[in-house]
């Protein structure tokens, strides 16, 4: 259907005219930045997967020789750091960047250049951490950076890379959080009240607030680690009056909200997928939303259950045991709501639905094992064993990663205009589900048998060999499933089936526009009249409550000649310049005092980027 608005025609032509690497490096379009986040997080996912496979190969048999103790410590530290800070968080940012404005009926985020700066800081932060492998070894003190492991051996810069790398990755997330919160509260379409927002938008908002309040806490701790290592401060030196427990409190005050930062986006995705493939509204939608908010609040009150073996005393341990039990309540509410959505629905077991159902099943197992850790004696016995490893992988892989893959299959046709192959998609799901359970279910048994975590080898005769071998077979199965996904993506790009605008019969606004969306998202900013507004444009209910299609109800809104011109954010190379300056700055700080010159160049580059940014026009108007 031809558009009537010259501004729309000009915007579309301009969009199709900008191609090449430079256009991607200077883009401020939220959808392109979302794609950049997505592809980057996938590449880091492959890196983290290789690190995990090396760990599993080392532990496949007793007295393993695949990795030395030093190499194992590096792989162990970098696998977790990569998966948390370079994969799951940015993958969630990819979905939020791409979809949040469209779900809200907006044409972009509130601060497009800040959005670009956040992405480039993330990329340079990931590069900064990765190059440590080639300059004396990667960080080796654990992803949790416990002092004094993170503050000793100052002549080796490995943990400096970790402290500064995580610091700048946190800055990237903080900038995104500010952007998303502002977008939600200022750029919703007319009629979209907060309670009409899609659940994914709600969960993204809760995550943004969690980031806003938790990242400054870990930033303080990371600065203290760096200062202890380089300037002789004694924040964590017990012999000089400091305390290593200070670091644990600072880290877990961030680290437990971080768990929900990782899982809530997947919960939002599942809450969007289940109604579409059950052909019924989300059961108890307001309860799902308020449960997410409750999780956000309560997530700040359970951090010390990570420290039950640190000797906090009976009062603190009893208090945090109780809060740990209580936070399971809003999570349980969500699970019952999801089951209630599927129950009695006209269920289609397409690949996005399978991953969403897999998410629920695996997350329930992880949640149940987590509740056992609220019992202080049980946690004390299990704390340093592989039972903990099983628990958090059921939550973060069985939960977050399964949910994210559900989102990939669900929104792939909207993003690319083509449908991923269903046969390969279902093969990917079943292999991943089987491989995941083969890998991590045995770790419950290993933990209860006493196998310690964070160990690079174990002797024969302790009963660990069989289950470790099974876990390694499972990890290889997961690797095969990811290979199938990559083949599916490549095959679809070459000859995938054209999706159309609304292949799943969706309920939210993104399905009302073309696939892929135009740069300006909407020819006409929609006016929202209900929850699941696009669904209500397509269907009305008959006397028995069954949906009846409305002729032409799903047609896109078309701009008229009198509609106002569309303003789009200007491309800019200053965000990448400023981010590169930050990279040079932290790289120089690692090698103080020799690196001070490099750090100075980095500071000048940052100032140059920010000054140039401030002088550029904010938007371009298409005519």
Specify the CATH homologous superfamily.
Cytochrome c oxidase-like, subunit I domain
Molecular shape: globular
SSE class: mainly alpha
Q: State which percent range the strand residues make up.
A: under 5%
Number of separate helices: 19
Largest sheet: 2 strands, antiparallel
Q: Helical amount among residues, as a percent range?
A: 55-70%
Order of adjacent strands in the largest pleated sheet: 1-2
Ends apart, CA distance between termini: 20 Å
**DSSP strand tally:** 6
Query: What CATH architecture label applies?
Result: Up-down Bundle
CATH level 1 name: Mainly Alpha
CATH fold naming: Cytochrome C Oxidase, Chain A
- Write the H/E string, N to C: HHHHHHHHHHHHHHEHHEHEEEHHE
Q: Unreliable segments (pLDDT under 50, ≥5 consecutive)? A: 9-17
Task: Give a description of the structure.
The protein has a single domain (30-518, 524-557), classed as Cytochrome c oxidase-like, subunit I domain (Cytochrome C Oxidase, Chain A). Helices cover 64% and strands 3% of the residues. It has 19 helices and six strands. The strands form three sheets. The chain has a two-stranded antiparallel ribbon with strand order 1-2. A two-stranded antiparallel sheet has the order 3-4. A two-stranded antiparallel sheet has the order 5-6. α8 (244-278) packs antiparallel against α12.
